[in-house]
Amino acid sequence: MKTPKYLSGISLALCGIIFVNTPAPAQTKWIAPASANTLKNPGSCDAATMKEAKTIYTSTCAPCHGVKGKGDGPAAVALNPKPADHTSKAIQQESDGSLFWKLSEGRGAMQAYKSQLTDKQRWGLICYIRTLKK
Ligand code: HEC
């Protein structure tokens, strides 16, 4: 039997409704694997490292995380989930290794920086994030 044209139209419409109504997967809390906690900064948070980190943070991270790290950069408006507030207790309580892992691996709008920034630069940014504590 030939399917009447209007039926395929209806199924198309139904598909559209189902597609549009499917909620985005719930954004779960971002947790680094336990092994990340054992990662340690092989260098130090010396003055030169901090200076470079501040420059990178201001140019690369601030558009989303804000100059002061509060997660209120100009690009944050359009993002869901919002960029992390680096001054918050929750972030400051995370281990250096966990933050380093997230910065390296990324998730969603937070891109993976492991191929864009060297290990040293990424550890420097963790040093810098510690200075943003409230
Ligand atoms: C395009 C916007 C954007 C830029 C640029 C960006 N981030 Fe993010 N960042 C995010 C978002 C959004 C999240 C939250 C992601 C999530 O929870 O899925 C996040 C999360 C993080 C986290 C994890 C916080 C936590 O513990 O949950 C760290 C660390 C971080 N960003 C550091 C940085 C650093 C350092 C830079 C600069 C090199 C940077 N980000 C650049 C948007 C951005």
Summarize the model shown:
The protein has helices at residues 5-21, 47-65, 89-93, 96-105, 119-130. The chain has 134 residues and is an all-alpha fold.
How would you characterize the overall build of this protein?
This protein has helices at 5-21, 47-65, 89-93, 96-105, 119-130. The chain has a domain at 43-134: Cytochrome Bc1 Complex, Chain D, domain 2. It is elongated. Helix content is 47%, strand content 0%. Heme C binds next to helix 2 and helix 4. Heme C is lined by residues 30, 60-61, 63-65, 75, 79, 81, 83-84, 91, 94, 99, 102-103, 107-110, 113, 125.
Secondary structure layout plus pairing:
Layout: H1 5-21, H2 47-65, H3 89-93, H4 96-105, H5 119-130
The chain binds heme C.
Heme C is lined by residues 30, 60-61, 63-65, 75, 79, 81, 83-84, 91, 94, 99, 102-103, 107-110, 113, 125.
Number of helices: 5
The CATH topology of one domain is given as Cytochrome Bc1 Complex, Chain D, domain 2
Classified by CATH, the class of one domain is Mainly Alpha
- According to CATH, the homologous superfamily of one domain is Cytochrome c-like domain
Structural class per helix/strand content? mainly alpha
For the termini, the CA-CA separation is: 71 Å
CATH architecture tag of one domain: Orthogonal Bundle
Low-confidence stretches: none
Elements, N to C (H/E): HHHHH
Q: Radius of gyration from the CA trace?
A: 21 Å
Helical amount: 40-55%
Coarse shape: elongated
